[in-house]
Amino acid sequence: MIRASERAMGIEYAIRDVVLPARELERKGIKVIRLNIGDPGKYDFQPPEHMQEAYCRAIKEGHNYYGPSEGLPELREAIVTREKRKNGVDITPEDVRVTAAVTEALQFIFGALLNPGDNILVPSPSYPPYVGLVKFYGGIANEYLTVEENGWQPDIDDMRKKINERTKAIAVINPNNPTGALYEKKTIKEILDLAGEYDLPVISDEIYDLMTYEGKHVSPGSLTKDVPVIVMNGLSKVYFATGWRLGYFYYVDPEGKLEEVREAIDKMARIRICPSTPAQFAAIAGLTGPMDYLERYMAKLKERRDYIYRRLTEIPGISTTKPQGAFYIFPRIEERSKWKSDKEFVLDALHEAHVLFVHGSGFGYAGDWHFRIVFLPPVEILEEAMDNFEAFMRKRLS
Ligand code: PLP
């Protein structure tokens, strides 16, 4: 047998891992309600018309060539305008890089920051690629606690305790996946103060920035004075175009501390040539076009969020914090005597109730004894899922 690398074989991705047993059931003709993947395009959400048209037009008009590694100048200009409007940041197109979605931005940033044995502070629980990609690039994902009793806000004291001489950056995911938390301005300020104290950059994942139900998103990029912040965003969530694989990031670096990191990132960007050219035309249309679709979509999402939250609070054996952003809810399993782990719980629910959740421990140690539910589907589907799940819980707890 030809051996694969340990680096690649060591990758874990809980969100897709639970799909195999679900597929097994489906092969036997059993209908499974999948609430495991955060992809709006699988339900009644599509990118707005003007973006779709711009994408098709770009292809038809011959924009099918390689573009610049850093992204098309018109798009970088549009990103500056969008981000000035949203975050009031003082940046120019020179500070912006376009990527194959946030996932590639993470690869560039971790690849440029990490030597073997270095670490990045990442939230626990967190979106799994933070742990997986940091490890892939030879680093250690150094998890800091976010506190459920405090609406899943980061624990600044814990963050401070976790910083050591090999820490290279602090990653913040806000609004958060999997908890749906929206961080307070005070928390963001405290994170920036801490980063400043230890001379660390902040990496800010803002992919859900305009997807909030209560309150508004605050970016560390908008509050920083001297701490370097790398802000990431893209088309996948707020613009409902997950499959187009387009995103961007930019540097807010008032004192020029990231000069070498920027050079390293540009080297990585050049060897991968460029992001998709026609998708960038669609992005220009999205970032400069009307946003009325978002209001309609957020109204649907809020109805779904309110529905699933109400149903979950009526089910025995679990407790739930109300998410304030994104489209995930992360209940806690209170009754633990019936299962050995949260993964066993999720598999039991899959086999018995035919609903697919993701086990919380797949999102880091603070996710232990929780599970994540995606509430993107219409209420009728959520209703069926919750009816099945409620019957399952009542049976198990009787
Ligand atoms: N960051 C967070 C917090 C996410 O939840 C996701 C997807 O679920 C991503 C990044 C992936 O974004 P992209 O599609 O832009 O790679």
Order of helices and strands: HHHEHHEHEHEEHEHEHEEHHHEEEHEEEH
- Mean pLDDT across the residues is 97
Q: Helical region count? A: 15
Strand order of the largest sheet: 2-9-8-7-6-3-4-5
Q: What fraction strand?
A: 5-15%
Catalogue the ligands: pyridoxal-5'-phosphate
CATH class of the largest domain: Alpha Beta
Instruction: Using the alpha-carbon principal axes, give the shape.
Output: globular
Which architecture of the largest domain per CATH?
Answer: 3-Layer(aba) Sandwich
DSSP E strands, number: 15
**Nearest-angstrom radius of gyration?**
21 Å
Structural class: alpha/beta
Return residue spans where pLDDT drops below 50 for at least 5 consecutive residues: none
The third-level CATH topology of the largest domain is Aspartate Aminotransferase, domain 2
Structure overview:
Keywords: Aminotransferase, Pyridoxal phosphate, Transferase. It comes from Thermococcus cleftensis (strain DSM 27260 / KACC 17922 / CL1). GO terms for molecular function: pyridoxal phosphate binding; transaminase activity. Its cofactor is pyridoxal 5'-phosphate. This protein has 398 residues and is of the alpha/beta class. It folds into two domains: 147 residues, Aspartate Aminotransferase, domain 1, CATH 3.90.1150.10; 240 residues, Aspartate Aminotransferase, domain 2. The protein has 15 helices and 15 strands. The strands form four sheets. Strands 2-9-8-7-6-3-4-5 form an eight-stranded mixed beta sheet. It starts with 5 loop residues before the first helix and ends with a helix. The structure holds pyridoxal-5'-phosphate.
